Lipocalin/cytosolic fatty-acid binding domain-containing protein (Drosophila pseudoobscura pseudoobscura), 224 residues
Amino acid sequence: MCKSVMICMAVVAAVLVSSSVVQGQTVPASPASCSSIASSLSFNDSALAGQWFEVARNPAADVSCIQVNVDLWENKNVLVNVSHSSSQPSLYMDVSEKANITLVASAEGVPSTAGYNVTFQKNGVNEAGVYIKLLSFNYTYLVGCGYTDASNVSTSYGFILARSNYTAADIATANNNASLYYSNFQNGTYGNVTQVGCYASSASQTLPMIAGFVALAMALIFKA
């Protein structure tokens, strides 16, 4: 099972922080589980493209330094590249997972809002699929959830992705706001995903925040 978001995305990822959380929605009597949420935000949104950092996960992630690069390819595919450490204590990003999500539309041509069953690939081997829904987004923070078994709530999780200008206070706000609507988030409680000091390829160099995603996009498209 993919350990990241959109990872397990996961990927990937709209409406929430600050004073307005999920705009236009009434707070339900009971927060909804991920599998019971009727709709997801559309994955076909260029605003989702670029680099994201997974900053919170509930239950807590068992790895650190989760970084997600996303690209929208010709409104047909969402390309996701997730990097993270192989264990929670480690800051060395030695694991890479990739997914190519083929977008679908309704008969009327409207982008799907059902979420997507995403299969990540690691070392050329497909991992177990994870169903991902994007719940809220405000350009700086992306809140979503995922599960591997719709009938087993223990396989589900909530995640928060952020751009590089995130703050601890805003992460808490995003989490607490999401907890009003979704049972995968708990008010005042969430697992931080370590992002400070993360590095790749060399123990002496901090990973630069540069996506370099075009080459990956081309590789995935021509492979598909």
About this structure: The first strand starts at residue 50 and ends at 58.
